[in-house]
């Protein structure tokens, strides 16, 4: 089987998407599945990998994040698809890449299984965040009808739609009538493990705040982008600065200045920047008392799964892919974008028995967390069996405006 992934957000210095696709290439090599990746980049070039390849197509850079480029011309991508003749072609964003794959025609296209793997929710990640101070989330969803129409129309051009979280599958069904296959992403449970808990490391991290070992240490992991909502989280944690509660945050991004300002205002938050050493990251997670997250727009919720795999309880927004890892036995939820509600959730969790929470979280890692191998086995099996067709009914709506279609 030959899978071609038209990956709009794969880049040499990329984050989660690059990590995921690199793992797919490696698993394909181990199992005899060839994986080719077509990605936009600064120049046309081919990077050979064991069992596959990454083919970069020259494309414009994204101004707000110059690590990434965006597909522009369809012809080079279509030519590659015709030449590669894949058994499965996967589009991993709902934007230009998906549009190109959806409209790919010809003999090779007719022989290929087209899969749309939903990696992004631009309405939740951008529009709901930008307007959360004055508009309800459901109001924004209704106002975004043009996007849901585009997505529904695009999805009907694919043979299957894949999602990585139950929450996201329910969301696209509710908003766009799209039926999807759930294939949860996996976590390296040998790397992220409760046995990595280090009491001396925890003592050192608390000492950075001048706090004793009896204090409580929260951890947050994620890029410094607006959809991650770190200022909301920091404000919530800052309300507890006189209660022996502190937080460390791991990550960076183009919103660094805003995030640093919010951390300084909180008074009990320290930013560690990017931790590229995965073993160190695993030790930090396992040595913390709870993970807190702010994004309502996670489509996979992988960061919460990593926290749970490390054996720590969770404090999460009540919307988003992270909720797939949540359960009352080891987590507390709060209204997204609401610092006061997040503070209450922190209080509720820290007032519970910490030993029992940890026992519950450690038990959950066995029942609620998949491994990367389990994820790719499930995904490749779906592709071999040609997955479940998209059952989206044609909505009785007006055509999408030409400008919207062009921008997709």
General shape: globular
Distance between the termini: 30 Å
Radius of gyration, whole Å: 22 Å
Look at the structure and give the CATH class of the largest domain: Alpha Beta
The CATH topology annotation of the largest domain reads as Rossmann fold
Give the number of domains.
Answer: 2
Number of strands: 14
Strand content: 15-25%
**Quaternary structure annotation:** single chain
Low-confidence stretches: 391-408
* Largest sheet: spatial strand order: 3-4-2-1-5-6-7-8
Overall helicity: 40-55%
Q: What is the name of the CATH architecture of the largest domain?
A: 3-Layer(aba) Sandwich
The number of helical elements comes to 17
Please identify the structural class as seen in this structure. Answer: alpha/beta
InterPro entries: Glyco_trans_1, Glyco_trans_4-like_N, Glycosyltransferase_grp1
Domain Glycosyltransferase subfamily 4-like N-terminal: 15-190
Protein name: Glycosyltransferase family 1 protein
Pfam family, one: Glycos_transf_1
Label this structure with key terms.
globular, 17% strand, six-stranded parallel beta sheet, Glyco_trans_4-like_N, glycosyltransferase activity, Rossmann fold, eight-stranded mixed beta sheet, Glyco_trans_1, Glycosyltransferase family 1 protein, alpha/beta, 408 residues, single chain
């Amino acid at each position: 089987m030959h899978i071609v992934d038209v990956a709009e957000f794969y880049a040499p210095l990329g984050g989660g998407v690059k990590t995921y696709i690199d793992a797919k290439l490696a698993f394909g090599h181990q199992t005899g599945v060839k994986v080719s990746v077509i990605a936009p980049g600064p120049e046309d070039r081919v990077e050979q990998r064991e069992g596959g390849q990454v083919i970069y197509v020259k494309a414009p850079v994204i101004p707000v994040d110059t690590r990434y480029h965006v597909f522009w011309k369809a012809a080079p991508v279509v030519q590659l698809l015709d030449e590669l003749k894949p058994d499965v072609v996967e589009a991993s964003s709902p934007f230009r890449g998906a549009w190109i794959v959806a409209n790919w025609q010809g003999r090779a296209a007719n022989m290929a299984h087209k899969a749309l793997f939903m990696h992004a929710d631009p309405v939740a990640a951008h529009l709901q965040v930008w307007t959360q101070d004055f508009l309800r989330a459901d109001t924004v969803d209704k106002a975004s009808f043009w996007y849901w129409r585009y997505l529904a129309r695009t999805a009907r051009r694919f043979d299957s739609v894949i999602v990585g979280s139950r929450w996201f599958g329910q969301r696209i069904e509710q908003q766009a009538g799209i039926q999807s296959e759930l294939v949860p992403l996996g976590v390296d449970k040998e790397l992220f493990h409760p046995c990595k808990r280090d009491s001396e490391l925890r003592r050192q991290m608390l000492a950075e705040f001048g706090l004793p070992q009896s204090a409580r240490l929260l951890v947050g992991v994620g890029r410094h982008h607006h959809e991650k909502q770190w200022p909301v989280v920091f404000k919530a944690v800052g309300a507890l600065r006189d209660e022996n509660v502190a937080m460390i945050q791991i990550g960076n991004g183009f919103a660094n200045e805003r995030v640093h300002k919010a951390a300084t205002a909180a008074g009990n938050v320290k930013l560690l920047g990017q931790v590229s050493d995965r073993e160190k990251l695993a030790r930090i997670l396992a040595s913390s008392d709870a993970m807190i997250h702010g994004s309502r727009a996670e489509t996979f919720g992988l960061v919460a799964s990593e926290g749970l795999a490390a054996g720590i309880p969770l404090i999460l927004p009540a919307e988003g892919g992270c909720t797939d890892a949540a359960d009352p036995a080891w987590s507390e939820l709060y209204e997204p974008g609401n610092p006061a509600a997040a503070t209450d959730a922190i209080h509720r969790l820290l007032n519970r028995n910490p030993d029992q929470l940890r026992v519950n979280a450690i038990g959950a890692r066995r029942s609620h967390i998949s491994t990367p191998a389990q994820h790719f086995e499930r995904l490749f099996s779906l592709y071999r069996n040609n997955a479940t067709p998209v059952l989206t009914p044609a909505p009785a709506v007006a055509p999408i405006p030409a400008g919207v279609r062009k921008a997709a």
